[in-house]
Amino acid sequence: MLKYFFKRCMAILPVLFVVSVLAFAFVHLLPGDPARMMAGDDADEATIEMLRTELGLDRPLPVQYLTYMGKLVRGDLGISLRTNLTVFDELKLRYLPTMYLAFAGMAWSVVIGIFFGAVAAIYSGKWQDYTAMMVSVSGISVPQFWLGLLAIQLFSVHLGWLPVAGYTGKFSELILPSFTLGATVAAIMARFTLSAFLDVLGEEYISTARAKGVTETLVMWKHAFRNALIPVITMVGLQFGFLLGGSVVVETVFAWPGLGRYMIEAVAVRDYPVLQALLLLYSFHFVFINLVVDMVYALINPEIRYE
Amino acid sequence: MKKTFFTLLALLLLAAPSFAETRDIIYASESTVKSLDPHDTSDTYSGAIERAICQGLMGFDKNLNIVPLLAESYTFNEAATQFTFKLRKGIKFHDGADFNAHAVKVNIERMMTGKYKRSSLMKPVESLMVLDDYTVQFNLKEPFGAFVNAIAHPGSLILSPKALETYGDEVSKHPVGTGPFIFDQWVSGNFVTIKKNPDYWRGDVKVDTITFRPIPESGSRLAMLRAGQAHYIYPMPAELLKIAERDANIDIIKQPSIIARYLIMNTQFKPFADIRVRQAVNYALDKEAIIKIAWGGAASEADSIIPPNLQFYKKQAVWPHDLEKAKALMKEAGYENGFEVVFLTPNASNRLRATEMAQQQLKKIGITGSLQSMDVASFYNKLEGYRVDDAKPLPFIAFGGWSASTGDADWGTRPLISTEAFPPAMSNFGFFSDKKVDGFITAGLASANPDIRKKAYADLQDYVWDKAPWGYLFVDTMVAAKSKKLKGIYPMPDGAFSVEEAELVD
């Protein structure tokens, strides 16, 4: 088992290497000159040229690549072209807010999703089922930015309960953005819970339980619900990566100082070091989550091994 | 499940913050702060925050007129090569350092190293001499009549010499100046807070703190203002104006800007080398419609090559929308059947819409072609890629915009229509070249005497207006919105703002 884990971890390294090469190539192939963007619209050529030299953008691409890799190996992500702060510090400032948002979003989606999924399954074919599924289909179809603005309109402007946007460390600031982020995933979770539930309800042990005269409530909660949760929990892991990446829209609507918004700002001004670092970080997240999921599988069922 | 619901509800209620009235102002803006080092700042927003903390020898008033600030007065020689400033006495920086000629010298010499984004402001300077503790003299390499504007520019703010020594270039995170507000905290990408300077030399500051927060989504920005969680928002989104106007607690502020919008045509090549074609373009444009539909009404038609708020502006007659004249001119120039161009535009929705409208309007006189929209970085990359000696690029019409940050006619014309400004040097992307125009521009810089300069730029504007180097469009109106409780804060024509007199009233 340990050998498998070790092998699995080592397999990440070549992936990350390829990603770093791609990140560099991709970012430098974007049209647009970062020196120009930094210097501003009304700058003259001398200023732009000065910046280009200072940033090392005047050197040949292979040289820039080697410099970048050399620093990367030493854990140096470079300096943000836009703010002159180190990329590492900038990421540090934004990493936690994004994580909070993703975890809180996950919490919403688990609570709401499982609730609606279970209701739909238990009252299969009745009005509760249709209502629950209608809500969850809406959850998938409604664009996040619209849902976010609606929530702001209701809870902040009309009721005055919650802050509109921004994050300065208060719990209240987390509620609306995380709900908006979690809504889409909640819908997916609801549908997934429903099908897992229905699968379990078709199993023989459920019929056996019923035949033995176990009350319907007990059948549902003790026998069906628990077993239906196992595939749902796997789904949670997979959706987490989606939440981390999907926060771009939510972070913009709610002015959340996280990685998603940072990415957008960095693209707009061609902040090369930041873009490279973010691409690496996002790739790392996905690789890492997959690794964890694989390991959990291997732990649950040692017969499952991806060689 | 019931229990979960009530727990959540309880949490919601508990978390509801109270928004008690304090003397703390929240300013919600579209932009994020990029630096707080004035010498190394190129964006208006960061520059405006720096202006609340630091001051220059000269500054701008509401209408972008130049007024003395840390300097009491200045004199200059006839050749516009020597400028002497008398400094104000008894002013201290926030860290206790004295403001004097030494402080000015340290700052200007820092800019003169050429290492910073605003170093170009001090490019004309040959040397800076300290005549006494409160007098400094700038000696220029050649006549530069607009030098006082460079001194008043937010890039020329004076930082505490002590802070420069302590922090070096890290001063961008610890700006120390002489202004009404003291820098408090900057969390990159999140907020900047400044607090009242109790010993401000110009008198009492009426608010305790101002927090600048970036709120990129315009709907959220307005929601913050309506919910009382922000006191001032900029820009106020034009498409939401009606909602804001219905709110009794909100004031809308409109202010003409110095941002000019125009269509760039590559004038060196057929068919735009022909002045009649360029004039036809100007007759064919229905600017009123573009302003109304693409710009939410927040602009006024261009009536000179530079906007009214720039120094030495002279009003001209607006080009009328006259399709018959446009068609006649096209025929005269031999393009009765029209020709094809490429329309280039940044993909910001208002710019795209404006270009699409221009495209439709020009179609009526036979100027047709496809439209390429791209993000701002790619757009400038494309325009800068063209060179005047390139064989014959496809004729293009590009949606251009310019804000002359020094507030002076020189910076509104020289970088855009002088021969020396062909890319890559500056931003004459249409390669417009005219000896007389170059002559007027040189004359405008040859003296620091306002009367002489005024004459030169008046001649320039009269002359170039009919030459139609651009398809003239309009000058942006800046729209901000604020809580009725907030007084004394106003937007400046250059897109910045002044908070020195800010005050919260009940």
UniProtKB/TrEMBL annotation, chain B:
Main location: periplasm
Pfam families: SBP_bac_5
Cell location: Periplasm
GO biological process: dipeptide transport
Family: Belongs to the bacterial solute-binding protein 5 family.
Species annotation: Desulforapulum autotrophicum (strain ATCC 43914 / DSM 3382 / VKM B-1955 / HRM2) (Desulfobacterium autotrophicum)
Signal peptide (residue range): 1-20
Superkingdom, taxonomy of origin: Bacteria
Molecular function via GO: peptide transmembrane transporter activity
Protein's recorded name: Glutathione-binding protein GsiB
Solute-binding protein family domain mapped to chain residues: 65-418
